[in-house]
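Per-residue structure
===
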Amino acid sequence: MKLDINTIRENFPIFRHRAYLDTACYAPTCLKVSKAVEDWWESRSSISAPSFEQTYDWLQPIADARTDASKLINASEDEITFITSTGLGLNKIASAIPMGKGDNIVLNDLDFSTNIVPWLAQRQRGVEIRRVKHRNGKLYLEDFEKMVNSHTKVIAISSVQWTTGFRVDLGALVKLAEANDAYVVVDTMQSLGALEFDVRKTGIHFMVAQGYKWLFGPFATGILFCRRDLIDKYEPLIAEPANVLKNPKKESYMHEPSLDNLTDYDFGFVPTAARYQSCSNISGLWGLGAALKYINLLGISNIEERVQNLVEYLVQGLKKIPNIKIVSPIERECRSGIVVFTYGSVESDLKMMEQLSKLGVGVSVRYTAGCGGIRVSCHFYNNEEDLDKLFSGLKGHRKLLSFH
């Protein structure tokens, strides 16, 4: 299926006045998503049924969103739940996995802080933190092999690195982890929605993702995956009423006078990934559901092909521009929708970013572990004209670019 880019771009009004190439920071508004959110607010403004009936009506689109989320990553619906942030999701996962003095967690020096801080907090339990260092913006399996041992509990990593766009071989990490009775916990913030992601093929144990980047959903929405064989194995220490079973005789929407909030909620965790759930952002989940449905309609394989074609066009164009160095790996098997290049200093990169913004081209500057530069992130809704505008700015064009 060939994507109709012109029709797609009609759903993203930003392109009427800006060449937006910064989805890795956050995606622009999609009309299908904003319409879904507006529909919920309209429903809330005209509540005409008892509250519990209204709530059930509001929950149906969320159930549909769970179906679309499971379809996107090839999971079963009971392996999917919703979260407000990747950080909270990771904290719930970390709290559930037994670990203590003598155990270790393996991180790396490229990851974003969201996938670092929850694991650093485990030092309070006596856990050792080990760190794999990148080599020219890439992470190598042999360097993980040196860090992982029989005391490793978790390898935490992003599917795509935010400052280089490096795409890791998750399947190889899972094999390494399982050989040492450890788990791979993946932050897919910078890939889900742009690249194919199959939890069955990779074999990963846990996954989190935020809604507002490549999924172009609302803020304070996200997805958590827990592999089916691990759902009943652990219980998170961070719990909410939505995570636990209730007494079915008294939970008929709280109509029983004898409902006891201590004994009637002490029934253990639900037997699905919802034991990690933390999201009552109903309007946001309506929007996220609309985004997931749209992605599945277009086909994630078609989206990835489009992203990769744009990245190829971008890389070839950047090679023709003097005085810049491409930081990102450009090999097809380890590249993503993120391409980073630099003029050699943070100051020069920031100056160019600001100049591009004045011209109507949106990009970012990002650095970590001595690695980074000007970050361009192409999604399926971008086109070659967006990139041509970028090239014009990099070549010295200083007049406001035209849009239509």
In short: The chain has a mean pLDDT of 94. The two ends are 27 Å apart (CA to CA). DSSP finds 13 helices and 13 strands in the chain. The first helix runs from residue 5 to 10.
